[in-house]
Amino acid sequence: MEALSSAKPHRLIRFTITFAHLAHLHPEFSYMTRKIIPLSAIIGGSLIATSSLADFQRGYVSMMGSSTVVPFVKAAANRTKGKPPLIQASGTGGGIKLFCEGTGAESPDIAIASRAMKTKERDECQRNGVGKVLELKIGYDAVILAQSRKGDAWTLTDKEARLAFAKWLAARNGQMELNSNRNWDDVKRSLPGTPIELLGPPNTSATHDAFVDLISDLECKGPPWVPAGAREPTADMLRKCRSVREDGVYKEGRENDETHVARVADATSPKLGVFGYKMMVDNASKLRAIPINGVEPTYENISSNAYLGTRPLYLYVKSNNIGRTPGLREFLGEITSESAWGDKGYLKTAGLITMPASERAAYAAKLKDEGVSSAISSPSTSSAKSTAKKPASSTKSKKK
Question: Which CATH homologous superfamily contains domain 59-141+311-396?
């Protein structure tokens, strides 16, 4: 909601309020269903926000972004002393957008992301006075093409996957043309002559971006996408190269959509789905991962970056907030402890693919420069902590 000016000078602020916010103010809201709702739905009117309110700092940590990363930050938050943080699943792009809007209490301390922050997003952060943004990689995930276990096992190359799902293809004459492949055997002769179908996340999702990388990253670096004499494609050619079919072949759902799992697993004709690593592990009895370029998306292949669909997971932190948001320093110390993100840590048990020890040490050193020391605890000690502590608040918006 946009605040309007009054007789006194006021700062314009967009407010988002949730039941999870209210839970921090009144215990009766603690167990209510948490949904993002407009402030006007509560007060039925307008609100004038003064500069003093804009400068108010929350008494708890606020995080927002990728639903892929939410389970990992929640696990760490539940082991961190102090007031439970507010964790909202809005999709990577949505979380970064609000993160970069400013430094007020309505903007999160941490953007949780399943892709790297883009240059234009960093520029937006700086334009809005966010200050230093700390990039903290916490581990890896992967985007995986999956089929039903009921059918014969498939293998695909990244080029074959592109022939099935890209909107624009490179033609033999060196130009580009709309994808006219309709059946699986148009893509690979050994596949059945049934219609191509793919179920995946919306284009607002970082999982969607990772899928596009899988089928387009290498392709877009050569002709016809890169003009003769140029080193990289124009913005328009890159957009075309990275576009996914819009003719009904690709059907959008939510990110990590359970209904897509059921539709792929129970399909009477071959359907493929796009899922994250944890979703695949959780549904291994129903789904079979399709190797890309002969490499299976195993834990080892993803951790070593041998699998083409590997993607890093990040926390983007407002450096200036580390010393002023209660609990932020402690949370960062917890999630970067060996008992959390280490090879035997509880985040691995939760589905995170851990980084090599050398990478973890490099990011821990970066945090140390910010005055954050990793929590000292063993996996057994950490997991033995009381589970009676009130869990971190979590909400979801419509975008995943």
Answer: Periplasmic binding protein-like II (3.40.190.10)
